[in-house]
Structure formats: C-alpha cells, structure tokens
Amino acid sequence: MSCSSSNPAEAMMPQDIQDKIHNHPCYSEGAHHHYARIHVAVAPACNIQCNYCNRKYDCSNESRPGVTSERLTPEESAKKVMYVGGEVQRLSVLGIAGPGDALANPEKTFKTFELVRERASDLKLCLSTNGLELPAFVDEMVKYDIDHITVTINSVDTTGEIGSLIYPWIFYNNKRIYGKEAAQILLERQIEGMKMCVEKGILIKANSVLIPGVNDKHLPEVAKKLKEIGVFLHNIMPIISEPEHGTAFGLAGVPSATDQEQMAVQEACGMDMKLMQHCRQCRADAVGLIGEDRGAEFTKNIFSEMSFDALEQHYNITARQDAQAKIEEFRFFLDQANERVRKEKEDLSSDGQTILVAVTTAGEGM
Fold first, then answer.
1. Which of 53, 110, 244, 290 has the most neighbouring CB atoms within 10 Å?
2. Are strands 124-129 and 91-96 parallel, antiparallel or unpaired?
3. Which residue, among 44, 43, 45, 51, has the nearest Cα to 182 in the 3D structure?
4. Can you tell me the distance from the alpha carbon of 74 to that of 17, in angstroms, rounded to the nearest whole number?
C-alpha cells in the first residue's frame, strides 16, 4: 500500500517527504494516532540556561520537558529501546530529548544511536537541541541516518535584546557568556546549523516557547525566518509557568498565555509555517503514543541485566514488521472512510443541507 497521506496538507508534499514523516508521530498528525515514540534520558548536561526550564531527576509526578525519573547510560538506553520495542510493537521513533541537550552530551548521544542502529534498524532516530552545537554535529547525524531533529528557537532578534531576557547565559568555547552577546551567538549557531541540516535533507521541527510579554509579539518574525531557512514544521508551545516547577519565569510571576492568546499567535505564525497542533510537551523519558505516557512501566531494573542477544530476540523485528503492516492496513481503510465522509460533507454543503452530529470516539484518526 502507498505511504501517501489522505491528510490534504500532507498529501500535497513531495513523496519523499511523505515517506519520511508517514510513521513519525511528531511530524505527522495522522501518524500520532497509530505510532509510538520513546525518549531516553541519556543527555543530562546542558550548555545554556533558559528562564523557562528547570531540569529534574527522579521525578514521576511532572509531565514536561526536562523531567525524568531515571538517567541512563548509552548501554542502558539501547537496552531500554530494545525491550520497549518488543513490548510496544507500534514503536517507530527513538528520540533523545534531554533532560539536558542532546548535543551538549555528544558522546552519550551518538553512542546510544550507534548501539540502537546496529540492532533496531527499523526505528527512526531523532534528537532535540537548542542548536548551539548543531553546526559541529550535522555530519555525525548524517552518519547515523538521523533525518529528523527538533531545534528550540525562541527569538530571531539579531540585537540579542529578546534573547537575553530568555537565556541568562550560554557555555560556548569553554567559557560562560552572558546577556545579549550570548543570545547573538546562540542565534547565529542555530541559523547556521539549521541551514546545514536543510542542505543535508534533514527535516527540522522548530519549537518556540510562547512567553507573554517577552516574545509573544515577536514569534511571527520567528516563523518568517524559519520559512526562509526551509524548516519543515513549527511548534508553538505555551510556557509552563506554575511556581511549583521552580523555573525563573515561574518564580517571577510570568504567566502562561491564555487559550485565546495562544490561538492568536498560532494564527499569525501559521500564515508562514505549517504548525504542529498535537504536541503534549513530553518528558525526557516519555514512552508510548503522544498523550499516553507509559514510561513508568519500563524502569531499568526490568531490562538492565538482560543481554543484548536476549533483547534482540525480545525485540523480534519480524513480529514488529507484521504488526506495523496491520497498522498500515487499518490506516488505509480509515483514510478511505474519511475521504468518503469528506466528499459527502462537500455534497451536502453544495445542496445547502447541514447536519449537526455529536460523536464520541477513542480517536485513532477518526
């Protein structure tokens, strides 16, 4: 069956792009109903300080970026991926998203990808980064066939004024740099790295944190710049500002955007960029479908003593391929059904007839 999408926006994309995003739950709104992801918390260090971030370990009662219950070594991370892949056959993506920055921990990040790529060739590999070290590692990403990345970019103000309100400091070239200079260096590195990724055919999802009174009026300019660079997808995320999370912005009383403010910014950014609409701001150790976190089921005491040979048998790539073929069969018939509904709605609309229907569904793309 074809990998073409019945989603009108995705169906207009080149076939090679459709094939790349078809079973990636973060890049395809249709795929997130059917395919799962795993984040492994193998990257604890970070090279910038963000006023909206507070990394936490051994924390099971918060669901947000930067939080994890367990930090893992590359070997433990690879074992976890193999174990989870055998238990969750709809798993299609491994991502490294912290709890720090993937590229501030390059040895751990790429060792994990190396171990997984050797044993689980069917998985897509991706990483999240602030972009400060992105230009230095694009070739390494290509080496491991990492063709999806997420870059968090909150300002494209070349003066550094806005960025300096968000980032107190960066650690670059073995020294800590503050204020506007830090923001300017970060932006230069982000833009350089993203351009390099686009040239190499790596799809980029850009995350931007919406911070009322700081960058809310500026984010449409970010969207324009992302379009100019060739970024694939833009995700506007509300700041998580409750004081109990311990972030600088939260303790300073910076509020989250209202739903109306969020929608207004998304509408403005959507004039230039395709927007991600199904983000749930995942933990650094998330497992399962987006919106369904099963991370607590897969603690390292379950798999850490298993050998890689035993885990390869447990992973059972043939069984996984069979299970995902069934998912694709279901998606094919679901797409056909949704297309019939779309045409019927068009016909009713052209006749001036309207019907109001209330539907309760478990989702899965209905």
1. 53
2. parallel
3. 51
4. 30
Pick the CATH number of 8-318 from 3.20.20.70, 1.20.1740.10, 3.40.50.720, 2.60.40.10: 3.20.20.70
| Helix (H) or strand (E) segment spanning residue 315 | helix 308-315
Q: What stretch of H or E contains 243?
A: none
- What is the DSSP code string of 39-96? E---B---SEE-TT---BSS--S--STTB-S----HHHHHHHHHHHHHH-TTEEEEEE
SS3 103: helix
Q: How far is CA 137 from CA 96, 104, 284, in A?
A: 14, 11, 21
322 neighbors 98 (Cβ within 8 angstroms): no
| Residues composing the chain | 366
Residue 95, strand partner residues:
39, 126
Mean pLDDT confidence for 275-301: 77
Q: What is the pLDDT of residues 239-255, one digit of tens each?
A: 887 777 778 888 888 88
Average pLDDT over every residue of 136-142:
97
Residue 63: pLDDT above 60?
no
**How far is Cα 66 from Cα 165, in angstroms, rounded to an integer?**
20
| Confidence check: pLDDT of 314 > 90 | yes
Give the model's pLDDT for residue 148.
93
